[in-house]
Amino acid sequence: MKFTLNWLNQFISTEGITSAQLADNLTMLGLEVDSVEELFVELEQITTARIKEVNKHPDADKLTVCTVDTGTEIVQVVCGAPNVRAGMLTAIAKPGISLPDGTKIKKAKVRGVASSGMLCSGRELGLSNDHNGILELNDQLATGISLAEALALRDTVIEVDLTPNRPDCASVRGIAREVSSFTGGMLRPLVTKVTPLTGQNLGYEVIIQAPDLCPRYTARKLTNITISPSPLWMQQRLTAVGMRPINNIVDITNYVMLESGQPLHAFDFTTLKGQKIVVRRPAANESTITTLDGNQRQLDNEMLLICDAQRPIAVAGIMGGAETEITDTTTTILLESACFNPLSIRRTARKLGIPSEASYRFERGVDPNLADKALERAVNLMVEYAGTKADIDGIDVYPGEKPPLELQLRIDRVCTLLGLTLSREEVTRYLESIEFAVTLINEKTLQVVVPSFRIDIEREIDLIEEVARLVGYNKIPTSQPSIRMDYPKRDELRVVRQEAAQILTAQGFFEAINYSFVAENHSDFCRLPQDDHRRRVVRLLNPLSEEQSVMRSMLLPAMLENIRHNINFQRPDIRLFEIGKVFQQLSPDTLPEERLQLCAVISGHRYPEAEPLHYSTQLADFFDIKGVAVNLLQVLRVAATEDIPLFQQIPALVPPYCDPTCAAVIMNGDKIIGAVGTIHPETLKAFGIKQQVYFFEIDLQLLASLGTKAKKFKALPKYPSVKRDISLVVPDNIPAGELLRAIQTRHHKYLESADIFDVYRGKPIQAGYKSVALSVTYRSATTTLDDQSVDNVHEKIVNSLMAEFNARYREGS
After folding, report:
1. CA angle in degrees (0–180, nearest 5) for 125-127-132
2. Are the beta carbons of 50 and 69 closer than 8 angstroms?
3. pTM of the entire predicted model
4. What CA–CA distances, in Å, run from 790 to 437, 461, 784, 785, 797?
5. CA–CA distance, 33 with 12 (Å, rounded to integer)
6. 95-140 pLDDT, tens digit each
7. Which residues contact 489 (CB under 8 A, 6 or more apart)?
8. Which of 366, 638, 803, 811 has the CA that lies 20 to 30 A from 158?
């Protein structure tokens, strides 16, 4: 079984583990590693180069003389490729370098013109069969870097020698499951959702006449197929593990087989007689079948065949028939994912002399519960890379369905046989790390549900061997006193306070520390209603002055006093924040409630003392303070309610000291955790401030109780993004953010991000309307997007916005 490290990382992270360590750990688990080989080492010395100038060869019509920038020098190269052009980024092999086929590049004269190197095609580099021109690279790549780095080709292929009793490891995900047992990482699923297959009104049927040889057969029809080469990354992975790429349909079936362990086969649907699949033994008059390799095979009565209504079309689990082969003209296929009897497949493969990757897996035992998942995975890939459309339903015939095997495992028995001291929790953890389901019967006995892919587990002793394997045959644990060395539990509120202060300081804010004693008239200055809970202040029995007669119920008034003080000292450009407690007297007989809050204010210029001059004249506005608040909540990883925006414009909930036309409340579900906006002119006048002030406030105590999103690793994108702009005219009463929310919550294909960059009212826009301009970024994680793919998604987004918001294109956009 061969796999590559990058492929393995698709299912389990191996970050922090070297290839040698991975090989050692797998070997100690009983999966002997035969070889570890670095891929594309020969491409490390071949670099990217940009063609600066192209001129005709003076003595050859089909040759050109190119001036090439290699990143370190400018060289002259004679080239005969028809696609060569100025500005093109390609690959160059400099003199002294050997190509993958062993050809050594030397300085030479071609028809009397000196040539220092060679501009290479995909075939010369061993990357593809394309020899129609030199390799054309993404124009955004740097010049002079290694081709292996530029194309993300650095990878390692590992070969594992499997024993016959471990068919579950004859797949990349199976190996990943074993790796998860010693890394503790999360094993990613093959697919996240499986389409239920009901088999209703499909126009075709599947009949299993030999259920003893075929316990399960699933199939789905796909139409509008375009046969073409599979994506380059898929071809490279298949080639790395020794399989020859053929076309997108065949390659996807092979790819899914290698990553899941479930062989698949695709039939040209138009060649099926009677639109029927029958799984049976040969009929009396059926003695031969012509397989895909063009050879005529002799059949016997015990071989299992896949047939249509009239004839055999495949030897089950071995090889398909030539008459239903996928060709360049195929547009409709029936995709098969089935499970066959191991003994039958082994006998048939030996008798016909057809060893194949499919028979290798079937004769060892394929998990019948994997058939629908592998089918879903293959269908998803074909929809993505073959332009196909899949039927919403399919067929799933499962006559051999069995309940899972359940075994009891005695902890004392494990310890006695292995000579180890293992706790119930340790044994549970080891088994669960390889997807065994474990429940507690009592303190000394576990109930273990054996997963269907582990056909080698039959008895309690097999489970004990699994525990020994996972612990490590070469490890003998020693008993030590149990001394806890962990840190005490952190105070979440303290952590939030520290992180919030660091985030705001990094954005140019200064921290203010004000007295907790304030003037009672602050409530009037902030226009609080008489029944507002923030008027229930704690009065001091012996205040120092009238200006410090009550304990604060808000942080904002003191911040406004700070702003006035700075303005009086000719420092009008202000960014301040304070984190502190506020106090409310809930009842006369109890101590006041203390809550930790955050308040931040911005006033004055957006870029104080900035150059050039036009930057220094820009004043801060509402979006500056909102951006700070958004960034704070994002960095704190606030666990927002799904698809409900944190910032909402609800006039009835906006604080009275805000300008209601330019304010929003910060909500999590139905909980108000803060507000952001512009200070009301009357409040500014009361505090003696003559310039605009913007603020946000957050209840940190409530924020800390909401919890945080888990940190997730996401690899840097390998492929370039594509940006499109949308400029729509919408009714003025529709918040611009609603358009953004509508884009983000629909989870469009390829959508990476969307942002608003302009909102305009005025001529020539009709009164009562506004123009909203959005920038939408698209990116694929698996390929470089073409214009057609992006245009299709972009058009869907624009049409949905027009329909939902009664929008129209802005004239001239």
Report:
1. 75
2. yes
3. 0.56
4. 43, 56, 11, 7, 11
5. 18
6. 989 888 888 989 989 888 999 999 998 888 887 777 888 988 888 8
7. none
8. 366
